[in-house]
Amino acid sequence: MSVASPGKKSFRRYVAALYVLGIASPGLLAAQALPESDGREHLGVKSCSASTCHGSITERSVYSVLQNEYHTWTRYDRHSRAYETLLGERSQRIARNLGIGKAHEAKICLDCHADNVEQDRRGSFFNISDGVGCEACHGGAEEWLGPHISASASHAANVDAGMYPTEEPVARAKLCLSCHLGTDDKFASHRIMGAGHPRLSFELATFTELQPAHYKKDADYSERKTVATAPQEWLDGVLVGADQNLAIIEGHYDSGGAFPEIALFDCHSCHHSMEQLRWQASEISGEDQPGRLRLEDSRLRMVALLEQQIMQTTSTEVGLRNLHVASAERGDVKAAASELRRRINDIGSQLRKNANRSGSFVAAIQSAASSGRFNDYADAEQAAMALQVLGGGDTAGSVLKDAFDALEDPDEYMPEQAAAALAGTARPALPRMEKKGAAAPVTSSAGTLYKVLSRSGLRVRALPSLEGRLVGGLAYGDIVAVKEVAGQWSFVLTGDAQRTPIGWVASSELGMESP
């Protein structure tokens, strides 16, 4: 197949087109620096918030953008409150435990909870308390802020001027995972976790859908940008996540102490009730003895499964087994991780050419679940989010409900129940939140406080129906006030200072807050 020269077209657009065709390596796209290290001045959220730019209260149809992006971010996007989180009691306690001073002033916290660029890259409108603002995702606007409002400006030209291509799944995955998983420079170590930081979890397509959209993928959008399907986003997220997981192992496994960096291992191999007999042998990791710490490998296992399904080869599985053996026997873990990383990058383009085979992926995941390959909590969590994205058969109904019920509480996690739910072979009676006093269904609309019970997050819609436009997302444990009930739907507001109404959510995913 011959490919014409890009001529005057942007090289990035050319590479993006090749990537969509499965010809070029996504590594070329990933070469662009993340916004945090793009070397450009970050002008601040206020430079985008004028009502005639992106600060309109309502959507407009004059230009190719909605113009209410700032309002959506401020009111519905949890990223806008990332800095505020550092002012809370939990963050303050974590900072005290770590001995790092104030959380909202510590670099280790600000690197993910704000757009923490160097002082000499902060413009006159820049405010660190804005949290994860526009330029934390879209890149320093020093060179593109002015040109991008021109009628003749193209998205390709904006990218050339430093705008980060968030519409590209590979680039977006690297950006999101830089905080939701970590990098060589930003990493939630076991020390940080021990101080009280929550466990990190991420899947690109699921989190993208839960993110309150400040754009519409209409004809104009499609003309200017790459539009990836949910299965494509999921596959890119898995592959980039696997690569980044291995890069972190390479950089952080040797902690310099008596033990390796424990945060790289499966949390629930240690953190579970001693009364529960959870351990099971794992053929894929070569784990044949109980009591061993096992590296957290949920994304790597998914890649191994996809390779077997699509290519009928086992290079990832072999490399993964070698990695676990090196870790268990004090071998060269860095070399094993590097070799596995090379193998995954080698097969990535072939897997991406098959991104449309979501039905095959669903069948493979359910078959693997029935054979015990997703027994560990993190593995089951990734499998459940994959089924949610890929759909197919009954996965949109009872199977998914049972799977997420099984994941409801890590402390009550039962591998057999999760495996049965993921495989779609049973609908076991699973414990929810009764033991913690938060299972009473929504019965009142008089401002009563309820807790979000869905471990997978809760979608917020503009109308009380599945067809309602997504306007935001809530996380497990969030407190909301119910103002109105319509059938199986509840209209909720966040519990913090009664912000602007959020929207409609499924009532079945809410429960009474414990006294």
Give the helices and strands, then pairings:
Blueprint lengths: L10 H11 L5 H4 L38 H8 L5 H4 L3 H10 L8 H7 L20 H5 L16 H6 L8 H12 L9 H5 L9 H7 L8 H6 L5 H23 L45 H14 L3 H14 L4 H20 L5 H13 L6 H14 L7 H9 L8 H9 L25 E4 L5 E4 L8 E5 L4 E8 L2 E6 L8 E4 L3 E3 L3
Antiparallel strand pairs: 1-4, 1-7, 2-3, 4-5, 5-6
Helix pairs in contact: 9-13, 13-14, 13-16, 14-15, 14-16, 14-17, 14-18, 15-16, 17-18, 17-20, 18-20, 19-20
Write up this protein.
The protein is built from 20 helices and seven strands. The chain is α+β, with helices and mostly antiparallel strands. The strands form two sheets. It has a five-stranded antiparallel beta sheet, with no helix packed on it. Strands 2-3 form a two-stranded antiparallel ribbon. Strand 4 and strand 5 (489-494) form a beta hairpin. The longest helix has 23 residues, at 230-252. The protein starts with 10 loop residues before the first helix and ends with a strand.
